[in-house]
Design goal:
four-stranded antiparallel sheet, four-stranded mixed sheet, 6 helices, about 25% strand, about 20% helix, alpha+beta
């Protein structure tokens, strides 16, 4: 896949650029995802509001195996969000999550978020990839060596503009190659040097691609 810019950070707790966010969604599962209407929907967990300041998330069966072979449970969810709330982490998500007063884990499948004050939007704030608690505690460098439970696993990152992942369900390898010039990206696609590209294209280039046999152009709503 040809990218306009490389990912900068594969730790979902601190990544802020759009490319890193998209790559991280391949590597990490999240408690919630967003529908086409940009509303939070269950992903790793379903939730219910027990009181205006008490939200309970119950983990489902899917997406709970980390790429290192360990099992994702409520302790990993708790550790992920507590690390974000730790001032030492300098996470850009900390301010948004500052209403969380306490996180409890009644059992391995259940996570309770207790809020300092009511906030009906809190499920939408929890769309952050879940990391293994034991690696958080060990100070693992997720930024450059991610470990998540997403549909892809990290293979290597030999240089800034070349990232390799493996699709976990069939072992197929994928390479993300940075090609900043949109004209060059299109030429590489037409020559078969890359198979896929996304966004950062002028209307003229999109029109050119639509007119070419063998090229599929798809369009979907976005937020940027």
């Amino acid at each position: 896949m040809g990218l306009a810019s490389p990912p900068r950070n594969l730790d979902p707790r601190t990544a802020t650029d759009a490319t890193s966010e998209r790559i991280n969604r391949l590597l990490y599962r999240r408690l919630i995802e967003f529908s086409e209407e940009s509303l939070p929907v269950p992903s790793l967990a379903r939730w219910e509001r027990l009181t205006p300041t008490h939200y309970r998330f119950v983990l489902g069966k899917e997406g709970r195996n980390f790429s290192d072979g360990t099992r994702l449970d409520s302790a990993d969810v708790k550790a992920t969000f507590e690390s974000i709330l730790d001032p030492a982490s300098a996470s850009p998500h900390r301010v948004l999550l500052s209403m969380i007063r306490e996180i409890r884990t009644p059992d391995t499948d259940c996570v309770d978020f207790l809020l300092a004050e009511p906030d009906p939007l809190v499920p939408a704030y929890l769309g952050i990839g879940i990391l293994p608690a034991r690696l958080i505690q060990a100070g693992h460098g997720f930024r450059d060596a991610p470990v998540g439970s997403g549909p892809f696993r990290f293979l290597d990152w030999p240089e800034t503009g070349r990232l390799r992942l493996e699709r976990r369900r069939d072992g197929r390898g994928f390479e993300f190659l940075t090609v900043k010039d949109p004209n060059v990206r299109v030429m590489k696609l037409l020559r078969g040097e890359i198979d896929l590209l996304q966004n950062a294209l002028s209307p003229d280039l999109v029109g050119l691609l639509r007119a070419r046999a063998g090229v599929a152009v798809t369009k979907a709503p976005g937020v940027n």
